[in-house]
Amino acid sequence: MIRLQSLRKITQRRDTSLIILIVLLLAVVTMRAPGFVSADNIQRIVNDTSILVMVSLGQFFVILAGGIDLSVGSVIGLSGMAAAMTNQYYPGIPAVVVLLIGVGVGLVLGLINGVVVAYGKVPAIITTLGTLSIYRGLTFVLSKGQWVTAHEMTDSYMRLPHGNLFGISNLIWWGVLVSVLMFYFSGYTRRGREIYAIGGNKVAAKFVGVSEQKIYMIIFTLSGMLGGLAGVLWTSRYAAAVNETASGFELQTVAACVIGGVSIAGGSGAVPGVILGALFLGIINNALPVINLSPFYQLFIQGAIVLGAMLINTVSERRREQELLKGRQR
Amino acid sequence: MQQADRQPKQELVNISRLIDENSLKEKLILLFTKWEVLLGILLVFEFILFSNLSPYFLDYFNLMNSTFNFMEKAIMALPMIYIIMSGDIDISIASIIALSSFAMGYAASMGMDVAGIILIGLAAGTLAGMFNGFFVTILKMPAIAVTLATQSLFRGVSQAVLGDQAYTEYPKSMAFLGQGYVGDTLIPFELVIFLFLAAVMGFILHKTRYGRKLYAIGSSREAARFAGINVSRIRFINFTLMGLFCGIAAVLLTSRIGSTRPNIALGWDMEVITLVVLGGVSISGGKGNLFGVIMAIFLLGYLKFGMGLINLSAKVMVITTGLLLVIAVLLPGFLDGVKARRKLKSQQMASTL
Amino acid sequence: MSETILEIKQLTKYFPGIKALDGVHLTVRTGEVHALIGENGAGKSTLVKILTGVYTLTSGEVLLDGKPLVCRNALEAQACGIAAIHQEASMFPELSVTENIYMGHHIIHPKTKRVDWATMRKETQTLLDSLELEIDCNTLVKNLGVAQRHMVEIAKALSLNARIVIMDEPTSALSLREVEDLYKIVRKLKDDGKAIIFISHKFDEIFEICDYFTILRDGRYIGEGLVKESSVDAMVNMMVGRSLDQMYPKKEVKIGRPVLEVQQLAQTGYFQDVSFTLHAGEILGFFGLIGAGRSEVMRTLFGIDSRSHGTVLLDGKEIHIRKPSEAMGYGIAFVPEDRQSQGVILEMSIAKNITLPQIDALSRYGITHKKRELEVTETFGEKMEIRAAGWHVDADTLSGGNQQKVVLAKWIATNPRILILDEPTKGIDVATKAAVHQFVSEMAAEGMAVLLISSELPEVLGMSDRIIVMHEGALTAEFSRDEATSDSVIKAATGHTAGNGGEQ
Lengths: 330, 353, 504
Description:
In chain A, 75% of the residues lie in helices and 2% in strands. By secondary structure, chain A is mainly α. The relative contact order of chain B is 0.17. In chain B, helix 6 runs parallel beside helix 11 (189-207). Chain B contains 17 helices and no strands. Chains A and B meet through helix 5, helix 11 and helix 13 of A and helix 9, helix 15 and helix 17 of B.
């Protein structure tokens, strides 16, 4: 599309630099561990990262509108538990319906976030900090502290992510499907563009009749739905629904966005960047054991990367502003 | 309006009388929309409820001893008042505890004495706070983003080094700090430390120029700047104080449980922020006081204790805390709405004079 | 010549503490450019905001095509065919021109039910071309200049099929050539039978482009008429209501020694090469259009923003001001433009507001001192004649005029030698305005040096000993009190000064 040409120009810089960074990263890791860049391993990494991609895209829209969703980890946990338990107690229900139930649970949880933010006027950070606890607590209440394990799940449920099509796992296809849908949504639909408008200039957006409330409802619900989908796929993929599923996952989603060039202040960023950001994180996570770093380093490295990425975003934004000002000098 | 301006001054003084002379009902509404009063009523209600549900609740020893469970969070809530008051937020505080406790464990494993260990703990916390403050005020990055990153970073240090291990070897004499009582009384040492720190922080907030500047910054960062207040410096000091108090809390907590694991104090960010917000400090800044937060601390602390007594699971408690956080933010908005309508009414009366 | 499209009768609007509009009439016909004239604070903006659904009226009638107009938000106003082009363009810098124009009312393809990007882009380009604008519809707005953004705003209004287009000081940030382009567009709109409400206080453009006028003063309707049957003098009289000499209590003061010398001050992107000298007892007026860089100069002087170049001398000695507290240390006080967000702290009491700049000095060992604070508050609060139920009441309960008095009191209390006033009478009632003028004049007479920024020409002309005019970040002219005429000052402010060709 020509329309997005100039928008791409900016993100392209981030996208290309991310691609270069990813290639470099792969090269470095391969030097330490040849075979890291095999087709099989790449597929494994993408497979591992698919869930992160989906949830990060939900997070992306929330951040784009100027908010943040800290409850995504708990949404994954609760909807995953709900789906897995449905599967456990009613094995007769088709897996697809269970999937829809999981997504439905996520939708409701997201909707609750949305209502509190949009109509209760509670800042997104506080709302989702609260629901982070509430949803996690509800997971325990629902499960009574029990787990759902592999032998309690039906085969069709486990096939949701594990099956494959054209030699590529279903999980990856899910990731691709969500990515394509979100790319279209963000770039070519009315509501998608209105999210950019709200994040970019709230006052102006209201003025042209873009409803802040409606947008908040949409983004939180969307984030919830993607969290719900991720919950189902997570529990079926790892063949276990535990109470701590995806605990702390919100940070990784924010990280993917920030690395992908999404401004934490809202209004700018794009889907391809977020996908690349998530892949970057995925590669790092997969590379740690390969280069003999204990997985316990993961948290620290993630924190450092997020801080670094934000620093780069901030500095480049400042530089752009400076250039703009110099351009204005007459 | 013009006419009002030409009226002699006492005419305008009447406006205030218009409001003051309002009925008893009006006064009651004003009183009961005061947040601290609401919290106080809730606290009394809570005591009545739990003492009816459990014979062990209204017991001096129990009431004193149960404070052990929430004094560290209470201490962290104090500088969090400053942070939230001035329009910032810090969600890395639980991780600062982890970092600080880790530093203490490391110092202990190196054979340092108690004073050295404590000093290391406090220093680690303070440095972590300054680290946050640097990014937020010098590099001008959003507090939520910075502390979200350092939340992983700080705890990540502890996790990277400790893995699934833990430091458990602390000098015996350190236990007093987090487990001891004052003299022969049943008053926990932690409670005394908290009360002392609360007095100091409350004094600063309400009686000093620093406190005044905090309120000014919270109400309008820009107006404060135009009034010559060094906004960045004060916000930096706030984050540093936050770090120091996390260090104090880490010393007490480590001393109380006698060990350091990477998951120490996990989830406390939310609980501490809940205390402050529930205490009536406005998340948009500029509003609140120490008294409300102290009320909230004991309200939530004893709620937890009481729920434990009647065998409600810890998870129900987590849900309750989350709900309270959201409700605590929803409700003042609602109450403000009521007040604002009243204010508007009196202003309209004034403007038609 | 045509039928009435919009009729406003007895329109009244109250705000807490102020009556913004009081019995206003306005009748607009199709194919007419209707000038809405009045000083700042006369109620023009409030009127526009009622028409565009931002505010609701307190009483009165607004009739569109003879039927009562009910619009609760901008969207409904648009649906009724009313579109406003704003002084400060409200756009989405990160989005393209097409998207800026269609945000909120994307074209949906009737068959596919999806956003029809192709049509939107085509329509946008057609629209831009019809306005003879050399802008590509895919350009991001952040890459456009001020004037181009303005034209996009107009295109946006047209895309809405607006029948009434409200232009609020549309030329304030435009160069001469761009103004011509704008006139062309306005004439075209007129020929198409649109009604245009043209808000301005520049008489040359009113006579150039407008057919009819309505004048407001202090929120009240003063009069109306055909432009070609009126004269500038007649309009000024109606607008101001009294002659300048009566209005401005400027005292004759003996100008003292130079206090502040500014040499080649610059801030990249905002202003450059600003040099002037301010003397004791002098009121130095700064005039210019919005965005000319006057406020930025003052902000830099006060240490809010940092300068990129230049020197500042106080009493002949070079000083470096990096933050407001340092400026205050040198005896500079700054009454900022935006009272509500920069001047007062609304949630604080009058007393706390007044003592805020010197809270350090008023405290003992860092502890605030109630008695001293009250003394200062009483001294300066009474000096400024602040009207309130008590010093403990919050500033947000005060009227705009009293809030401004609080701001003045808090700065006078610091005992400054140099007082910077940025739009000190914006949005306050007439009585307070007069009090502020009186007060400033007295302070200058006592030897204070005053820098007065104002967009209100009569105020600048009436109050200043000397007037400096800025245009697009540079000084374009300087006038003494005797030399200055509204004509010459406005010409300099719009960049038409003889001998100062610049980009023109």
